[in-house]
Design brief:
This protein has 109 residues and is α/β, with parallel strands linked by helices. Helices cover 46% and strands 13% of the residues.
Length: 109
């Protein structure tokens, strides 16, 4: 079964087109590497969704992830920091770069 990775990064205040490109490029890379990916922009679907509603949707989906991948700009995002803090508290592994995730694809002996 493919590991499920939730992508977390800055969305609020970002230009929509650049934000979509940022998340989709990481999503494509992870999918090619054998992961199932939860992209929060796809979860929410509408850039005009109120922040509180978007966060509730994202956290709901994040709970099914095997790990989080924090994008470089996560520290600038209140929502991504909330997602990270929650993941740490409930023992969902948090990664800060793509190569670190590859260990999840290596069979355990």
């Amino acid at each position: 079964m493919k590991p499920i990775i939730y992508i977390a990064g800055k969305v609020s205040g970002e230009p929509e087109e650049l934000c979509r490109l940022k998340f989709e490029s990481v999503e494509k890379l992870l999918c090619k590497r054998g992961f199932h990916v939860i992209n929060p922009l796809r979860v929410v679907g509408d850039f005009n969704t109120p922040w509180k509603t978007a966060m509730r949707l994202c956290i709901h989906h994040m709970m099914s992830a095997d790990a989080l991948l924090m994008l470089d700009d996560y520290s600038l995002s209140r929502g991504a920091n909330i997602e990270r803090d929650l993941a740490v508290r409930i023992n969902i592994p948090v990664y800060y770069d793509v190569p670190s995730l590859y260990s999840m694809l290596t069979p355990k002996k």
